[in-house]
Amino acid sequence: MISVLSVASCSNFRFLSVRTIKLTLAYDGTNFAGWQIQAAGRTVQGVLEAALARVAGEAIRVAASGRTDSGVHALGQGVSFEYAGPLPADDLARAINAYLPEDAAVTDAADAPPGFHARRSAARKRYRYRIYDGPVRAVFERSFVWQCRQRLCEQAMARAAAALVGTHDFASFQTAGSPRESTVRTVYEIAVRRGRAGEGDEVVIEVEADGFLYNMVRGIVGTLVEVGRGAAPEELPAAALAARDRRAAGPNAPAAGLCLLHVTYSDDLI
Fold first, then answer.
1. What pLDDT does 215 receive?
2. What is the mean pLDDT of residues 239-248?
3. pLDDT tens-digit profile of 134-189?
4. Residue 223 above 60 pLDDT?
5. What is the pLDDT of residues 96-107, one digit of tens each?
6. Measured between alpha carbons, how far is 201 from 139 in angstroms, rounded to an integer?
7. Which fold has domain 18-112?
8. Alpha-carbon distance 208 to 134, whole Å?
9. Which residue among 101, 131, 177, 208 has the highest number of C-beta atoms inside a 10 angstrom radius?
10. What is the 3-state secondary structure (H, E, C) of the chain?
11. What is the mean pLDDT of the chain?
12. Confidence check: pLDDT of 5 > 60
C-alpha cells in the first residue's frame, strides 16, 4: 500500500487546491441575448461556461460583475470562478480563448485572493456610451453607437449632468424589472465630450459609480440627449432626481451605444 506521504513525495505528483480565478472579458454584445444564461438565446455566460467546460473537463459556473443586457458590449467585464485544475492563469486564458467564439475574448486572467467575487468585490464600474450625430449614417458603426439625427449640444449636456454626480436616489433612472433593496447610488463622475479633440460627429458619455440600477446608464444618457437636442431644459436631470419617478426622466437610450468599460475592485483602491 502506498502512503499519502510517499505519493506526495513523487516528483510527478502534486495536490491541486481549488483556486479563485479572476478574468477580464471583452465582447461584442450585438449577437448576444445579454450576459445571463436563458432558456433560449445565445448569451455571454453561456459561451464562456461552454468554453470552460471544454478546458476543465467539468461544468464550472461563473459570476460576473454585472448582467449586461442584450446588445450591450464590454471591454472590461469582471468574471470570477472556482478552478481546481493545473493550468496557470495565463495558460487558462489562452485555453479558454481557443474555444470562445470570435465576438468574445479573455483579455486578462489572474489568481484572485480567497473570497474574491466578481460582483460582490466590485467597488466601482465605468460605462461608456457613444452617440453619433453626424449628417450621414455611420454604416459600419451602427452596432456600437446611437445614431441621432439632430446635432447635440454637448456643453449643455455636460452642465446638466453635473446634478447627477454624488450620492442620490436614482429611482427615476431605473427601469422596472430588477428590484433592489435601495435605489441610492454614488456617481463619482459623468464626463461628456465630443470626440477626442472636442471635434467630430460623436458625443461620448462616461459614467462611473459604485453600482448601477437596471438601465440606469441608458436612462441618464436618454435624459441628457433630451437636453442636448434642446427638447428639455438643463434642469431636467435634477428635477428627475427629486421626483423619484421614472416618468420624470428621459427615455432609455438604445443598448447598442453602451459598453462596460472597466470594473475597479476593492484591492485596486488600496
1. 96
2. 97
3. 999 999 999 999 999 999 999 999 999 999 999 999 999 999 866 778 999 999 99
4. yes
5. 999 999 999 999
6. 13
7. Alpha-Beta Plaits (3.30.70)
8. 26
9. 131
10. CCCHHHHHCCCCCCCCCCEEEEEEEEECHHHCCCCCCCCCCCCHHHHHHHHHHHHHCCCCCCEECCCCCCCCEEEEEEEEEEECCCCCHHHHHHHHHHHCCCCEEEEEEEEECCCCCCCCCEEEEEEEEEEECCCCCCHHHCCCCEECCCCCCHHHHHHHHHHHCEEEECHHHCCCCCCCCCCEEEEEEEEEEECCCCCCCEEEEEEEECCCCCCHHHHHHHHHHHHHCCCCCCCHHHHHHHHCCHHHCCCCCCHHHEEEEEEEEHHHHC
11. 92
12. no
The average pLDDT across 191-218 equals 92
How far, CA to CA in Å, does 12 sit from each of 7, 8, 9, 15, 22? Answer: 9, 9, 9, 10, 27
From the list 178, 170, 167, 157, the residue with the least C-alpha distance to 233 is 157
List the domain boundaries for the chain.
Answer: 18-112, 123-269
90 has catalytic annotation: no
How far apart, in whole angstroms, are the C-alpha atoms of residue 253 and residue 221?
A: 6
Residue type, 196: R
Write down the residue that cell numbers 461608456 correspond to: 128
Give the bridge partners for 262, in sequence order.
126
Q: Tell me whether domains 18-112 and 123-269 share a fold.
A: yes
Question: Of the residues 69, 169, 201, 245, which is catalytic?
Answer: 69
Residue 199: how many other CB atoms lie within 10 Å: 8
Domain 123-269: which CATH number of 3.30.70.660, 3.40.50.1820, 3.30.70.1290, 3.50.50.60: 3.30.70.660
